[in-house]
């Protein structure tokens, strides 16, 4: 998967240097807890002792033919309508991005009806939505490869424009179904534990969704490779996020993963490219059932637990100030020596 995007190995010399720099700051060793490990992770991911916390959110949007089977409380048109909202600056993602100083690039990875041109929009031009995965594979091999490549190149472009952190968020009615199916097929997690309300199904709706997902999974039973799972279950935005994770890692950025669907993309990408793990930070624990199963499988300790289940990168943007604080700690905090403070006794 994306072999041309090679991910540099973490420098052990840099690790020692950054750990020493953190311990030289005016605080008892370890007293900034997770902020210290975040600072180290940012530095190692970026390959520099003074990491950059400027962030770009890739907002990956696409549609899903499986919505025809009643797996979402919302119609597919809402994907495009929300993308128009992103363009107008009115969505939660826009509000939070403005409040934390992150940029947003909207990626039309395969929306059923194309949005109008906009300076913040890039188009994949692959296909207008994934096929109905109950009837046939959601994507062809060429479509998966193109979506991975589109995401990887979009991420590299953001790093080249100056982002040290690439945040991954999405918009796609029906995409919790793809997320559940991918986590089931790639990681062997149980489908019933992975199936939740998504954007607002009631109890009967969740039961219907689980029935559909079981039937979809039965069409492609057993464990699948990350690539084959994306073919079978889609979606284009999830493949693009998986590609973006690999692309951003290859370009020496940290990757900030949003909620349930972005984590499914990370599960797929890290199964294919485990060497990217050093770059990946999980922003929050979503309220969507099954997110904790994915996070546990990844050995991830998300930064926030706020009961969020929106998507669109909202949780990643809310976690960003913690990363900014970690980078600022490394860059700006005085050392015992510079501040003339006595060292610890004993
Ligand atoms: O990020 C999450 O944890 C999350 C959890 C549930 C739903 N969503 C959002 O809701 C949409 C998918 O929900 P659904 O029910 O249509 O599959 C999609 O646009 C996601 O951004 C997002
Ligand atoms: C309104 C709405 C906004 C969203 N943002 C991300 N997923 C979403 C799903 C819905 C339904």
Explain this structure.
The protein has two domains: about 10-50 and about 330-340, Nicotinate-nucleotide-dimethylbenzimidazole phosphoribosyltransferase (CobT), small domain (5,6-Dimethylbenzimidazole Phosphoribosyltransferase, Chain: A, domain 1, Orthogonal Bundle), CATH 1.10.1610; about 55-320, Nicotinate-nucleotide-dimethylbenzimidazole phosphoribosyltransferase (CobT), large domain (Rossmann fold). The N and C termini lie far apart (about 50 Å). Strands 3-2-1-4-5-6 form a six-stranded parallel β-sheet, with helices on both faces. The protein contains 14 helices and six strands. It has about 350 residues and is α/β, with parallel strands linked by helices. The model has no long low-confidence stretch (mean pLDDT about 100). The protein has helices spanning about 10-25, 35-45, 75-90, 90-100, 140-160, 175-185, 190-195, 205-220, 225-235, 235-250, 260-270, 290-300, 315-330, 335-340, and strands at about 55-60, 105-110, 120-125, 165-170, 255, 280. β5, α11 and β6 (about 280) form a beta-alpha-beta unit. 5,6-dimethylbenzimidazole binds near residues 82 and 171. 5,6-dimethylbenzimidazole binds near residues 82, 171, 310, 311 and 312. This is Nicotinate-nucleotide--dimethylbenzimidazole phosphoribosyltransferase. InterPro entries: Nict_dMeBzImd_PRibTrfase (IPR003200), Nict_dMeBzImd_PRibTrfase_bact (IPR017846), Nict_dMeBzImd_PRibTrfase_N (IPR023195), Nict_dMeBzImd_PRibTrfase_sf (IPR036087). It catalyses: 5,6-dimethylbenzimidazole + nicotinate beta-D-ribonucleotide = alpha-ribazole 5'-phosphate + nicotinate + H(+).
